[in-house]
């Protein structure tokens, strides 16, 4: 547990660096806000329509694929550290190829279903 | 008392690395890009070849007005730069630069690094959404689209090294490293580095930023110090990616004659140079081209690398 003390301290330092920079900036900067400065930037002309524009998200199927595969991949890590230890060897290797085959099959299926195309 | 002093010393060193190395990489980028494009780059600030240009930029940014657009989601807009920047500082805690020279040796180091680095991208997505600007929303969407493509090859390539070394501790991986890992893990190295470039949104994968089409994307509305912190995050990201590639694939501090930390720095700067070189050499991809590259190129290659690693490892055992 003590090895995480430094990580937590570093996180606190990171937050302090950010707040410190903002505070110094607050002391040094001019504040002279006008309505024009606060307008949304749209290449110099007045903004058209609402601020959050609608757009079609074409890649949401990728997101499903990613979540599924990423969860699979996380299980690789604990396995990776022990697979070559005495007493494992061949059996774990075969397991690995089963794992790879499952992932590869998933990608080939998605590819054949034309999920991996943008349009 | 000695323990506390030791901890403070490590923290100070990590913070120094975090604040200095990105500036050196940034200045190198100014000069290397300039000379590759037959320009001189900065020449005035500080006198000698404009060495103080980024310090001058920092002083300027510090004095700039802080504008939060009326349409923005104020709170999220304000903290997004911190979300982009702080993860790279935290990651430095576990990256070793020499034998025993590491902030803290976590036994889940590799896992920790991948998890924390992923958080940085949220800063970009938050900035994109909270700006209330159409360009920024597009940029944030593209960041998200990029995230779902490169993260899997990144994780798979990293786990191949974990298999080879039999540990997740980063100093442990460097200690286990042998020179013949270079050919053995070559595919993993390429996949990891390319996916890492995509994670950093560096050219040729800078579609979320794309200053010539969506005007810096998530950063369109940012000014002054918050914008500067986003830029610092980008260069800190280059340092972290180079250091991580060095530690995982290039043997970290291992090398003849010179002391370990020097070798680490040489390798990190060589990789940072490659990052800059790639930026100058390749045009920007489209988002769908990256997704195709990742899912039909990098992921199968990473799976192949896992198979090679497994077979060789069991054959040697």
TrEMBL record, chain A:
It is a multi-pass membrane protein. It is found in: Cell membrane; Membrane. Coiled coil: none annotated. Its EC number is 7.1.1.-. GO terms for molecular function: NADH dehydrogenase (ubiquinone) activity; quinone binding. It catalyses: a quinone + NADH + 5 H(+)(in) = a quinol + NAD(+) + 4 H(+)(out). NDH-1 shuttles electrons from NADH, via FMN and iron-sulfur (Fe-S) centers, to quinones in the respiratory chain. Belongs to the complex I subunit 3 family. PANTHER family: NADH-UBIQUINONE OXIDOREDUCTASE CHAIN 3. This is NADH-quinone oxidoreductase subunit. It comes from Sinosporangium siamense.
From TrEMBL, chain B:
InterPro entries: NADH_UbQ_OxRdtase_su1/FPO. One of its GO terms (biological process) is aerobic respiration. Keywords: Cell membrane, Membrane, NAD, Quinone, Translocase, Transmembrane, Transmembrane helix, Ubiquinone. One of its GO terms (cellular component) is plasma membrane. It is a multi-pass membrane protein. Its EC number is 7.1.1.-. NDH-1 is composed of 14 different subunits. Subunits NuoA, H, J, K, L, M, N constitute the membrane sector of the complex. Belongs to the complex I subunit 1 family. NDH-1 shuttles electrons from NADH, via FMN and iron-sulfur (Fe-S) centers, to quinones in the respiratory chain. The immediate electron acceptor for the enzyme in this species is believed to be ubiquinone. Couples the redox reaction to proton translocation (for every two electrons transferred, four hydrogen ions are translocated across the cytoplasmic membrane), and thus conserves the redox energy in a proton gradient. This subunit may bind ubiquinone. This is NADH-quinone oxidoreductase subunit H. It comes from Sinosporangium siamense. The lineage of its organism: Bacteria, Bacillati, Actinomycetota, Actinomycetes, Streptosporangiales.
């Amino acid at each position: 547990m003590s090895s995480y003390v430094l990580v937590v301290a570093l996180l606190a330092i990171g937050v302090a660096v950010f707040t410190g920079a903002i505070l110094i900036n607050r002391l040094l900067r001019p504040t002279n806000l006008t309505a024009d400065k606060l307008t949304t930037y749209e290449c110099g002309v007045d903004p058209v329509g609402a601020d959050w524009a609608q757009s079609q998200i074409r890649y949401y199927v990728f997101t499903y694929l990613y979540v599924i595969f990423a969860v699979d991949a996380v299980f690789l890590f604990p396995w990776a550290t022990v697979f070559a230890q005495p007493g494992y060897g061949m059996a774990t290797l075969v397991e690995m190829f089963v794992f790879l085959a499952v992932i590869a099959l998933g990608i080939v299926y998605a590819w054949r279903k034309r999920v991996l195309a943008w349009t | 008392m000695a323990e506390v002093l030791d901890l403070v010393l490590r923290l100070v060193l990590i913070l120094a690395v975090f604040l200095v190395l990105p500036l050196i990489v940034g200045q190198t980028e100014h000069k290397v890009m300039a000379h590759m494009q037959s320009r001189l780059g900065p020449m005035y600030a500080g006198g000698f070849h404009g060495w103080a240009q980024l310090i001058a930029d920092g002083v300027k940014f510090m004095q700039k007005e802080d504008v939060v657009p009326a349409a923005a989601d104020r709170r999220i807009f304000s903290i997004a730069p911190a979300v982009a920047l702080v993860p790279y500082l935290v990651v430095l805690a576990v990256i070793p630069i020499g034998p025993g020279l590491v902030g803290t040796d976590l036994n889940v180091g590799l896992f920790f690094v991948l998890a924390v680095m992923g958080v940085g991208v949220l800063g970009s997505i938050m900035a994109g959404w909270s700006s209330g600007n159409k360009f920024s929303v597009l940029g944030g969407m593209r960041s998200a689209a990029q995230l779902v493509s490169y993260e899997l090859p990144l994780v798979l390539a990293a786990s191949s090294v974990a298999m080879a070394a039999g540990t997740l501790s980063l100093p442990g991986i460097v200690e286990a490293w042998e020179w013949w890992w270079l050919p053995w893990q070559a595919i993993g190295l390429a996949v990891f580095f390319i996916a890492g470039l995509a994670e950093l949104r560096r050219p040729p994968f800078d579609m979320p930023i794309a200053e010539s089409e969506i005007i810096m994307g998530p950063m369109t509305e940012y000014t002054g110090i918050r914008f500067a912190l986003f830029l610092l995050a980008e260069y800190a990201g280059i340092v972290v990616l180079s250091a991580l590639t060095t530690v995982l694939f290039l043997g970290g501090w291992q090398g003849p004659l010179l002391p370990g930390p020097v070798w680490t720095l040489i390798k990190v700067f060589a990789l940072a140079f490659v990052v800059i070189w790639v930026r100058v050499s390749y045009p920007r991809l489209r988002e769908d081209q990256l997704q195709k590259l990742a899912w039909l190129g990098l992921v199968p290659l990473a799976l192949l690398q896992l198979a090679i690693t497994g077979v060789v490892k069991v054959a040697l055992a």
